[in-house]
Write a structure and sequence with these properties.
It is globular and about 45 Å long. Strand 1, helix 1 and strand 2 form a beta-alpha-beta unit. The chain has about 170 residues and is an alpha/beta fold. Strands 1, 2, 3, 4, 5 and 6 form a six-stranded mixed sheet that branches. The two termini are about 10 Å apart. It contains three helices and six strands.
């Protein structure tokens, strides 16, 4: 599996809730990782990590990125919102090589019952997509339980499975 880089993304006019959500995101990712290892102990999600001094836990060292988009939230609303957003995500960690898990904290782009979306630009039936973007829509109905290890953790797992080409 390719490394998964996790980034918290907001529109230009949105307040950042990264401080509030960072540990909650890590909690959900820990649950997703535990599920993955329980289902197949020979594989695990390889998250991008940083060697933070004194941090012993695997996901406590998550390299959680932050990106403020160039345009206001209204520019990303509706079915075409993701089309306008993707070109602005070129600064994500090696977009063509890494998997990227984007926690988008702006208005729902689609129906608010859609919890996540995955784009895999180049699919390979053996290795999955070479790059890809998995989105978690934090303002969807599912985003309300971030950090509980429940629905949002399931959505993360689901989208990462899609991102691997399955």
């Amino acid at each position: 599996f390719r490394h998964v880089h996790v980034t918290y993304v907001i529109p230009a006019d949105a307040p950042s809730r990264m401080e509030e959500l960072a540990s909650k995101i890590v909690t959900d990712l820990s649950v997703a990782d535990a599920w993955w290892q329980r289902e197949d102990p020979s594989r695990t999600i390889r998250f991008d990590r940083f060697a933070f001094p004194g941090c012993a836990s695997k996901l406590g060292s998550l390299d959680l990125g932050f990106l403020r988009l160039a345009r206001p939230a209204a520019a990303y609303e509706g079915d075409q919102g993701i089309v306008g957003m993707v070109p602005e995500l070129t600064d994500l960690a090696e977009l063509d090589f890494h998997k990227n898990l984007v926690y988008y904290d702006g208005p729902s782009l689609y129906d608010p019952t859609v919890c996540g979306t995955t784009l895999v630009p180049r699919n390979d039936p053996v290795r999955g997509g070479l790059g890809g973007l998995a989105f978690i829509w934090l303002r969807s109905l599912c985003g309300q339980d971030v950090g509980t290890g429940n629905l949002n953790a399931e959505v993360v797992t689901h989208e990462l499975i899609h991102g691997q080409g399955f």
